[in-house]
Amino acid sequence: MFALGPLSFGAPLALAGLVALPLLWLLLRATPPAPKRAIFPPLRLLLGAPDDAETPQHAPWWLILFRLLIAALVIIALARPVWTPPNVEEETRPALIVMDTGWASAAAWPDMRQEAERLIDAADRGGRAVALVTTAPTGQAAPALRLGNADDARRQLESAEPQAWPANRGATADRIADARSSGSLDGQMAVTWLSDGVDSRDAGELSRALSSLGDLTVIEPDSGRAPLGLAAPQPAADGLTVSVMRAGRDFPRTVAVTALGNDGRAIARSDISFAAGEGVASTDISLPLDLRNRIVSLRLDGTASAASVRLLGDQWQRPRVGLITLESDEGQPLLSDLHYVRSALGPHAQLIDGDLDALLAENVSVLVMTDSARSDDERIADFINEGGVLIRFAGPRLAAQGDALLPVILREGGRLFGGSLNWDEPQRIAAFPDTSPFAGLPADSTATIDRQVLAQPGSATPDRVWARLEDGTPLVTAERRARGWIVLFHVTASPDWSDLPLSGLFPRMLQRLMGLSQGGNATVPGNGAWVLDRALDAEGQLVAAPISARPVPAANFDTTAASPVAPAGLYRLGSAASALNVIGPDTRMDPLPRDLPGASFAGLDGPRARHFDAALLAAALIMLTLDVLIALGLAGRLPMRLGGAAAAMVLALGLTPLASPPAQAQDVAPAPERAALSEEMMQAALTLRFGYVTTGDATIDNRSRAGLTGLSQEIFRRSAMEPEPPLAVNVNTDELIFFPMLYWPVTRDAGPLSDQASSRVAAYLAAGGLIIFDTQDADIAMLRAGTPHPGLVNVLDSIDVPALSQIPGDHVLTRAFYLLQEFPGRYSGAPVWVEANPDGASRDGTSGVIIGSHDWATAWARGESGGAAAPIEGGDRQRELAIRFGVNIAMYALTGNYKADQVHVPDILERLGQ
């Protein structure tokens, strides 16, 4: 690399072309051979005429200089000039670059890599030696740490990548100290630490080791690119509580967390908002137990790292419930109170019978205690304080005297039908309050209560009462104790006091209470070892286990941290499955302290080298266009007035992209362009373009545009179709007929269409158009409430859509281009709907609508670098299937049912006698 102060050239040999400029000057001045003389008698009449005409022998000098300038710009551009701020060029010492490559660096890795490239280039321009060292172990022996040339550092940077476990800064400090003592790192250096911005116990140790080599500059990402981490979810009364940690705390930030099932479908989604200065934020996700048990992972949207995914093992899905039994219960099991509990919880939990000692040894997450098994053992209180759930049932002993393991204070004697404090008639259960975990369950009118224990007035506060009788007395009360819960049914678990255990409501109430447990935290067997089944990579995707992984002894699994030999992921021990995550119970995400020894701090947005090759080539192209216009004007083939106007127009158009920032792939068309959009749509009639319906939400519209852009590029690459970039469509004002296919994202708050929009859509469908309605929620509304998507209902009610059915296995969409039997997008597993009887329509047997919830646009979208714009649960395989389905849709929209018509070819040939 050749440098002239702050100006350097990536390909300096191209500057040799400047030597040819004098030769080019002579070439441009060259004139054609002189004309031959011939005698023509009539010309003698002109001998006396004055000679006032002047014929130049070469181009004007200013035009030659103009053309030489064009040549010089092209030559300099080919030399790849780079302008670096002078303050970067003042360094003369060798450079040492330290990069954090733990899981926390994944969020800002592109920026950290770009900064490392800049530092290496700066050292190369100054002829300085450079060394690059990473802080996270890779499972292989670390290379020798020594100063070398810039090319060696670049090769090392190309192989560096974030890991799915924490950085080991202490080991890096030891490597640097060893290299210093061996002479590999000798003398003073310019040290730069490209940090992930997260504090650790060994950060100070690394800072001291680096500052001993010379001036230390710590560069860390800003808050928008700071890492995020998902903590272990906590069960709540009506679902679960999800907490997210962050290191950068300067500004407010909002992130979305999605709960995913085993099939990749989104079960729930919620936003989490950080206030300025806040490091931990939480949100409550309301889910019934049956859906909560289906969750296998949590994922932060819009960020890709091993800490942005939280894997859940078997313990979370199926709680371990201990039933405290007595020897007297074994004689008549069908008459025992626990018989009804077993019948209610058997299909939904792992039930373990035994005395208190045996159950606590099994480390259950829920204890069920009936009146006959009443105990005041202090170990039960410790069990509750550590996160356990105690479910109690009343009886004669509890009515006679209460104890400390109760959520309310009880009155002695109880209340029964026909006795003191009696009822005129048995009581029924009232509707459950909204704050209760039983909210939404229908109160069974057939379940009557004959007797109950009563709470002392004032102790049964509304927050402790989860169920009441019609007269307002509590039926179920609960209290949070430390990390656990105490829940009391004021009746027996058998039909002695009520009909509740005989009703269908009883098992549903107990199932809801299972949601309070933390999954059991089953005791890891004392022998055997957990074997890694699938590992989390640095981007949070499940991949095959790396070769560095080793089995983890069962006794040590709970205390094992993610590392190269024990990567985060899903582990198996026999038929059991458990998850090891990057964020452990003791993990903290504090920002790097500003008092690190010998360190000065900077951000990734510091001085940047500027590349001018593209700008110089663009300027040369504009000047070359002007040269053509000038030449035409001098030759008399273009009026000078018209030529000047044309030159000014070309110059203005050429300078516009240089002065304005480059358009991003997902930018929304600005408002001034909307006025000319109808004319652009008229031009769309001459080309192949897809359209997307705008929703008013810039995030969703950007996603739709990026998705259709990515799909158009894939269609261009894989087929003979050549789609142009997609266009935004407003169904209220724009003509739809020009688009063979429309992508319509439907939000939950979408309202009914106006009469004008309804008529436009109806005319579009009648003319053979195809609309893809995508709710982009993986049927969360259907899963949670059992009701259709409200926004989709409003939109479809405004359109005359015939009966729908799921795509059958022999539908044309399954073989329009690729052979498919599943149609995933960002999510998978939910049904995809088409017209049930397309033969009855006027569209030649094709469906005019495709309705799904898979968020196909996100799966199709490509980023600026050409890679995937967002991660999806199924990884590259699912993204490929989504693209294939998009190609099938495009073929279906353009060719209809031609694939289905092929089944008639044998009959046609038979009729023709062939």
The CATH topology name of the largest domain reads Rossmann fold
Rg, alpha carbons: 37 Å
Return the structural class.
Answer: alpha/beta
Q: How many H/I helical runs?
A: 26
What summary fits the major beta sheet?
Answer: 7 strands, mixed
* CATH class group of the largest domain: Alpha Beta
Give the strand content: 15-25%
User: Outline, from the CA principal axes?
Assistant: flat
- From the N-terminal CA to the C-terminal CA, the straight-line distance is 73 Å
**Strand runs, count:** 40
Q: Average pLDDT value?
A: 81
> Within the largest sheet, what's the order of strands?
17-16-18-19-26-25-24
- Specify the CATH architecture of the largest domain: 3-Layer(aba) Sandwich
User: What would CATH call the homologous superfamily of the largest domain?
Assistant: Domain of unknown function DUF4159
Count of all domains: 6
Helix content: 25-40%
- Low-pLDDT windows of residues: 519-526, 653-677
Domain DUF4159: 689-894
InterPro entries: Aerotolerance_reg_N (IPR024163), Class_I_gatase-like (IPR029062), Double_TM_dom (IPR011933), DUF4159 (IPR025297)
Protein name: Conserved hypothetical membrane protein
Transmembrane segments: 6-28, 61-83, 614-635, 642-660
